[in-house]
Fold:
Amino acid sequence: MAFTSQRGLRRFAAIPAVASLVLAAACSSGEPTAAPGVTSTPCPGSANTDRGCIYLGVLSDLENGPFTPLGASMNDGQVAFWKQVNAAGGIGGYDIDISTYTRNTSYDPRTHRSAYEQIEPHVLALSLSFGTAQTVAMLNRMDADDMVSTAATQWSGWNYRSADRNLVLSAGYSYCTEAVTGLDWFAETHYAPRNIAVVAYRGNYGGDYASGAMKWALANDATIADHIDTGPNAEVGNQDGPVAEILAAAPDLVMLATGPAETAEIVGKLVKSGFTGRFLGSLPTWNPALLQSAAAPALTALYNYTTPVDSWAGDSVGAKHAREAITGEPANFGYSLGWAITYPLKALLTAAAANGELTRAGLRRSVGAMKPDGEGMVVIHPAGAAEPDLETEWSAVFEPDREAPMGARAVSVGYQGKTLSRLNLHEPCTRL
Structure:
C-alpha cells in the first residue's frame, strides 16, 4: 500500500468517519497506515509484536562536519531517550524508531536538503534537524509537508510562532538569551566587562549570539569593541584574522560562538600573544578533546561556557534518568542535550495519540494540547505560545576540569540574571 500524499491526508481529515475506516483497515491488514511514518507492523528488531511503529527522521552532523562530536553524541542521547520510552510501553500502542531514517548531513545545507527529500515520504516527524540555516532553508517544504521537527539548535526564532510556524519544537534558551544570561553570570563572578569582542560564525548561530551580547552591552553601559565574523577552519583555513583583530581591539572579554577547533585556536593564540582577558563561549564551542590540545592550559585557566541543560552529573530527575539509560559516561555533553531537547516531541506524540491524530497535520494541531515536562533538566516554554516565557529561563555554567565527567565541571546550574527581564524581547533577535 503506497504512502498517502499530504493532499490526501487533508481530505481524510475533512471526513473523520472515512479516515477512521481507512486507518482501521490499514491496521488490520498489517500494512502502513494512511499517515507517513506510522505502521501497524512492529519496528525493526522490536520484541514488542503487539505494537506498531512510529518512524522519526534524523538529519544531523554525524561524520566529517564541524560539529560531528556534538551531533553524534546528541544522536546517542535521543536514541537512549526513545529506547527508554519504548521500554516504558511506547506511545499510543506504538514503539518509536529513529534509526531507520537517520542520515548524516555533515552540516552541509545541500546534503541536508537531499537527505530530507529522501526520508520525507517515510517519517511522521523529525526527531532532529541539526543546523539553524539548514532547517530554516527547509521551512517552506516542511510547512507544505506538515513536518514537525525538534530543533537541534538554539536560534531565537524557534521560540516564536511567527518564525517557526509551529513546526519546530525547542527547549531551553536561545543563543541570544544565552549571551545575555552568560554575561550577567560573568559580571557577577569575575568582573564587569567594559570592552567586549565577539567572534562568531557567520549566520544564525553566531548572529544570534552576537545580538545578545550587543543587547547586554547596551543595557549595562559596556562596549562591543569588535564583532568578528568567521567560519569553520575547513572553510576559512585558520583563525589568524580574528586573532589579529582581537589583539588590535584590546578587549577585556572575548565571547565565542564558533566550533571547538576554532575556540582552541583563538584562545591558544591569543594567550600566547599576551592577551590577559577571559573567554566566554556558547555550548557548541566546547569538546572535552580540547583538553588534549595545546590550548588546554589557557582554556582551563580563562574559559567558561554555558548550556541550557543540567549537567551529566546533575541532581534533576531528567539528569538521573539520562544517566540510568546507558552504562558508562557519554563522549561529551551532547548526550544530555540530545536527551533534554526530546521532551517536547514525546509530549506532542503523546497528545496526538490521545486525540487519535497520529498524522503530520494532527501533530501540528496538537501542539497547543501537549504538556511537556523537562523533568527539571531543561526549561520548556509554553507549547504553542506566540513567544517564550523569558522569566523561566536559566543557564548552567561550566569550566574545563580534567577530573570532572567529560572534562568539565558545572560551577552554576539554574542561574538567572537580571538583564533579560529588562530587554522587552518580543521577536527573534535575528531575522532571516
